[in-house]
C-alpha cells in the first residue's frame, strides 16, 4: 500500500498538466480559452483535488510508509517517507487547499483564464505533498525548486507588467535561497554520511570534529536560503511584491501555505539533519534569533504603515512567519511546539484574511484600506469572519493565536538564551500590539464609519461559495484555540522526539 | 588486431575525403552524403566505444606502421569514443534542425560548399579527439578554424563577414600561442607523441630542471586554447558569429567547435604534461579566475541583450567560464564536472539555438525580444523546447544543467584550498541567479499572450509540428537527450571517470 | 639570470622577438593587411625557432646526397618536416584572411575593422 503515497503527488500533477495542455491548445486554436466550459473545469479539478486530498489525509493519518522513486546519483535516491512532521504539514495544507479551491471556483470568474489557473493550482498541490513527504534533503530540494517554478504562474496570472516583474522577483529570491540551500546540502552530505531525515539529526560527530566553523557557516547559509521562502530578513522583499498582483486565492495559498514550505525546509535541516545540539549556543543560533526578531518587528511595522490591504497582509505574513522561525531558533521542545502550532494556525488565519481581501476586491473592487470604510454595513458576514481571524492572529484568548504565542513566550523564557530570553517575549508582545493596530481598524471603520460618510446601506453579501470557505477557515482559527488539546499533544510529541 | 580498431582512422579519413566529394555534387546530394557520413561515423564510433568498453583498456593505432617515437599514432580510450559518438549525434541533430534556414539563407550555388565545411569540421574534430600527436593536433586545430570560419561566413551579410574576420584573428593568435607552446615542449623533450612527451616531462620534473620553460609551455598552450574557445575576455567575436550566422552553423559552433578545443586541453593536461604537474603550476589559477569572471560577465551581457540569438550566444560565454572554472579547481572531480558540462552544454545550447529559430520564425523573423510575445503559442514545440533548454541552463532539477551544477558544486566543496572553494560556490550562485533572470524573462515573454490587435496587424504565422518534420524531430531528440542526461547521469559520469582513469 | 645565455642562444632570442612583433601586430594593428603581415611574421618566427632546434652545426640538409647514408651526416629532419607542414598551414590561413579582406573592402571600402563595426551598428543591421 506504500505506493498510495504517489497518488496524491502524481494524480493532481498529471491532472494539472492535462488542464494546462488543454488551455494551451485552446489558446492556440481560438486565441483564448473557452470560458463556457468553466463548469466542467471546476468539476474536474474539484474531483481530482477531493480524491488527492482524501488520499493525502489517509496517508498522513496512517503515519508510515516509504517509496523510492529513482536514484538521482549513485547513493542519492529520490524517495518519499511519511513521518509525523510531514503528516502535520500535509494535513493542514490539504484542508486549506481544498477550501481555497472552493472559493476560487467563484472568485476566478473575475480573473479569467480559469483552466490555466486550476491547472497550476493542482500541479502545485502535487508538488507540495511531495515536499511534505520528501525523505531526504535532495528530494526536498528538488521539489522545493519545482514548487517555485510551478507556483510562479500563479503570481503572473493576469500577465500585466507589474505581475511579471513580481514573478521575476519571486523567482529571483527563491532561486537565490534555494541555491544557498543546495550549497549547504553539499557540506552536510560530506559530514553526515546520509541525507535521509533522522529525528534529532544525523551529523557524524567524528567527521565533523575540527570542521565546526565551516559547517556552521553552511547551516547558516541554508537558514538564510530556505528562510527566503519563509520571508525571513534579509530575503523577504518578494512577499509584498508578489501578493498584491496575484489573484486573491493565489495570494492566500502563497501566504498561508507556500511560505510554510520554507518553514518545513528549515525544520528538516535543523532538526532532522544537523541536530539541535550542534547549533545550541553557537553564533548561528544567536544571529538567527536576532534576524527573526528583527523580521517580526519590521514586518509588523511595515504592515502598520501600509495602505494597500493585500500588501498589508503580506507584511503581516513576513512578521508572523518569523514568529515561527523564532520558535524554531530557540531549540527547546516547548518553543518548537509553539512554532508548529503557529504554523498550523497561521495557515488557517492568513488564508481567511486574504480571502476576505479577495471578496472586497471581487464585490466592490476596493483594494486600499481607506476605501473600506462602512464595508461592514454591506457585507457583515464577511467582516465578522475577518474580525474573528484577526483576533486569532493578534492572540486574544481563547482564539488559536493565543495558544501558540503562549508556548512561544514560555519557550523563550525557559530556553536559557540570555538576553533573547526576555527580549523575545517583549518583541512578540509589541508586535502583537502592532498586529492589533493594523488589523482591527478595518473592522472598526468597517462597522462604524466616520461621520459625514454617505454609506450605502444596501446589502451586498458575498456569494455563498466564497463565504462558506471563509467561514470555515475563520471558525477553525477560533475553534482550534478553544479545543487545542489533541493538536498540542500530537505536536509536542513531535517536538519531544526532536531533542 | 580486431577490425573495429581501424574505425577511428577510417572515420577521420571518410569525413576528410567526403569533403572534396561534396564539391562536385549538387547541394541536395551533398546534403544526403553529409548526413550519411555523420550517421556512418556515429555508428563506427559507437562500435569503437563498445569495443573499448569490452576490452576495458585503451589501444594505440600506429599509422603507416612506423613505431613510436617516429610514427604518428591514434589512441582510443573510453572518453575519446564517448566524445566521438556524442559529437556525431549533436552534429546530426544540428544539421537536421537547420535545414530550412540553410536553404533560405545560403545561395543555391553555394549549398554544396557548406557541406564540405561540415565534413572537414567533423574530420578535424575527430582528429582532435583521437590523435596522439601534438603537431597533428595543431594542424587539425587550424583545419577546424578554417572550416568554422567558412561556416560563419557562408551566410553573406556584413555582420558575418566581420565576425568571421574577428574570429580568424583571435583564432590565429590562439593557434600561434599553441604552436609556440608545442615547439617549447618539443625543444624540452625531443618528442611530439603525447605519451613520449609525458615520460620525458615526468623525468624533467623529477630532476627539477627546466622548471620555468615547462611552466611557460603549459601556460602558452592553455592560453592559446582558451583564446580559441572564447574564454572571457577573448570573446568579442562570439556574439556576432553565433548571432548572425545560419542556424546550423551557430549551433555547431557553440556546441562542438569550442568543445573540441577544450577537449584537446584536457588531453594536454592529462596525457602530455601530467595532471599533477599542471596542478602544481600556477596556470590553472589563471584559468580559474578568468573562468569565474567569464561566468558572471557573460550572464551580465546576456541580460543587457535584446536580440535573442545574441543573448543565447552570451550565455555560451558564461558556460565556457564554467568549464574553465572546473579546470581551475585542479581536482579530478573538477575535470569530471567540466567534461560533463561540455556534454550537457553542447546538448542544451544546440537545443536553444534551434528552438530560438523556431520562435523567431513565427514572430516575423524578428529576433527582437519584444516581438517574441506569445510566440510559445504560435509554435508549440519550439516554445516547449526553449523552456526545457532554459530550465536546464538555470539548473532546475530533472534537466541536465542541474547535474553539471551539482558536480561543479561538489567539486568545489571537495577542493582543499578554501581560497578556491568559496569563490566557486559564490560564483555558481550568482551565475545561477543571473541565468534565471534572462532565461526565465524570455520564457515568460514567450507565454505572455499577445494582444489581438497586434497579432492581426503583424500577421504572424503559426507553425505546426508536422510542417518542418526535420526540425521537430531534432527538437524532440534534443529534449529527450536533455532529460536523459538529467535523469540518468550516473552511467555517463561513470564513463567519464573511467575514461579519465585511462588517460592518467 | 645569466644574460650570457641570451647571447649564446641568439637565434632563439631573435625568434622570440620576431614572434612578439608579429603577435602584437596581429593583435593591435587596425589595418587588416598589416594584421596579415603580422600573422606571417609570427609564423615565420616559429619556423626560425623550429629550424634552429633541428640544426646541428656542420651538417647538411636531410636529403640524401652522393649516396651518404650515415645519420651523422645530416641534421635532424623532423623539425624541417614540421616547418614544411607549418608553411602549408600558414599559406592557407593567409589566403583565407586575404580573401576575407577583399570581401570586406569591396563592401565597405575600408580596411579598418572597427570602422566597419561602427558602421554596421549605425545601420542597425
SSE arrangement of chain B, N to C: HHEEHHHHHHHHHHHHHHHHHHHH
* N-to-C CA distance of chain B: 24 Å
Order of helices and strands of chain A: HHEEHHHHHHHHHHHHHHHHHH
Task: Please count the beta strands of chain B (DSSP E, at least 2 residues each).
Answer: 2
Q: Write down the Rg of chain B.
A: 22 Å
Share of helical residues of chain B: over 70%
Biggest sheet strand line-up of chain B: 1-2
- Helix content percent band of chain A: over 70%
In terms of quaternary structure, the protein is: heterotrimer
Q: How big a fraction of the residues of chain A is strand?
A: under 5%
User: Which segments of chain B are poorly predicted (pLDDT under 50) over 5 or more consecutive residues?
Assistant: none
Shape of chain B: globular
Q: What composes the largest sheet of chain B?
A: 2 strands, antiparallel
Please, how many helices of chain A? 20
Biggest interface pair, counts: A-B, 31 and 34 residues
Number of helices of chain B: 22
Structural class of chain B: mainly alpha
Low-confidence stretches of chain A: none
Spatial order of strands in the largest sheet of chain A: 1-2
Beta-strand content of chain B: under 5%
What does this structure look like?
- The complex is a heterotrimer of chains A (499), B (504) and C (125).
- With 499 residues, chain A is mainly α.
- Helices cover 76% and strands 3% of the residues of chain A.
- Chain A has helices at residues 7-30, 38-62, 84-107, 114-132, 137-155, 161-192, 205-208, 212-229, 238-245, 248-274, 276-279, 283-305, 309-330, 333-364, 375-378, 380-394, 400-414, 419-447, 464-482, 485-498; strands spanning 66-73, 76-81.
- Chain A has a two-stranded antiparallel ribbon with strand order 1-2.
- In chain A, α14 packs antiparallel against α16, α16 (380-394) runs parallel beside α19 and α17 runs antiparallel to α18 (419-447).
- Chain A is globular.
- In chain B, 63% of the residues are buried.
- Chain B has a domain at 282-504.
- Chain B is an all-alpha fold and 504 residues long.
- The model of chain B has no long low-confidence stretch (mean pLDDT 89).
- Chain B has helices at residues 7-23, 27-55, 78-97, 99-105, 111-130, 134-153, 158-189, 194-207, 211-228, 238-244, 247-273, 275-280, 283-304, 308-329, 332-361, 375-378, 380-394, 400-414, 418-446, 452-458, 469-487, 490-503; strands spanning 59-63, 72-76.
- Chain C has 125 residues and is mainly alpha-helical.
- Helix content of chain C is 73%, strand content 0%.
- Chain C is built from five helices and no strands.
- Chain C has helices at residues 3-8, 10-28, 32-54, 77-108, 113-123.
- In chain C, α2 (10-28) packs antiparallel against α3 and α3 (32-54) runs antiparallel to α4.
- Chain C is elongated, with a radius of gyration of 20 Å.
- Chain C starts with a helix and ends with a helix.
- Chain A binds chain B through residues 24, 27-28, 31-32, 70-74, 141-142, 145-146, 149, 156, 159, 164, 167-168, 171-172, 175-176, 179-180, 182-183, 186-187, 190, and chain B through 377-378, 380, 391, 394, 396-398, 403, 406, 409-410, 412-414, 425, 428-429, 432-433, 436-437, 440-441, 444, 448-449, 452, 455, 462, 487, 489-490, 493.
